[in-house]
Amino acid sequence: MSDDGTKAISIIAFIGSVFSPWYRWSGRKDPEDHCCLNVVTYGKGGRWTMTDRGRDALELSETQMKIGPSHLSWDGSALTIHIDERTTPHGGRLRGKVTLTPRAVTNVELPLCNDGAHIWRPFAPVADIQVRLENAGWSWSGHGYFDANFGTRALEEDFDYWTWGRFPTREGACCFYDATRCDGSNLAAAIAFDETGKASPVDAPRTARFKSAFWGVHRETRADPDFAPHEVRPMLDAPFYNRAMVRTKINGETVTGVHESLDLNRFRKAWMMPMLAFRVPRRKNWPKRWL
Prior knowledge:
This protein has helices spanning 21-25, 155-158, 264-267, 272-279; strands at 8-15, 35-42, 48-49, 52-53, 58-60, 64-67, 70-74, 79-86, 93-102, 110-111, 118-133, 139-151, 159-168, 172-181, 186-194, 199-201, 206-210, 219-223, 230-237, 241-250, 253-263, 282-283. It is mainly beta.
């Protein structure tokens, strides 16, 4: 999020693009044949990119990941993302560089289910970000976050619903991960990180529901009993997924962060896949003249 709260960006690098209809239709047997750099910018002139690419587009090394014309690199102190993608449905180009510099890197790994089939790895809960895109008005600085999710099964095999939130605090950041698993059990994780990367459990406030957006995805987050959490800026609203800037109050501190809700009961419906195909074009071979 930008320091002034008017802009934001999310970037997800996928090997096995979990929300790709093409990956699902393929039987999810070859994750490297469904790689993707999903970039979404929020604010005036915001754009969406999510191109599903084949294995020829993917190159990996210890410090670099290339996905088609875009690439990510780690130099030991900062993550740099060079973006060169085509937007959907506008068809324009989104180019530029984003640099994320962690205040510290954690050693935290959290299993999301009992057999460890899904793992959450919050590498840098507290970070600084510089965005330098070619689009007019899209050079800004702010605070950011870097994590990863790993899994050996499809999300909808193990989860019905989850919410996640990252909220900057005076001491660092708080992250909440709450989920309802398909077996009826629940995940309720609340972790505070300081600027050195030290993690400690939070006496988490209650879970409070707040108003749904257009597609009606259920939204809830942690909040003190005397505070009603609420959206302060919409980001992404889809039939099964919502992302927004949300304000809440955690142990007496009012904070604004990024919140996500994921309804996997909706996502597993077959009718959802053709809708997603419109926003997620498939480009199997690389290189090509098109992106």
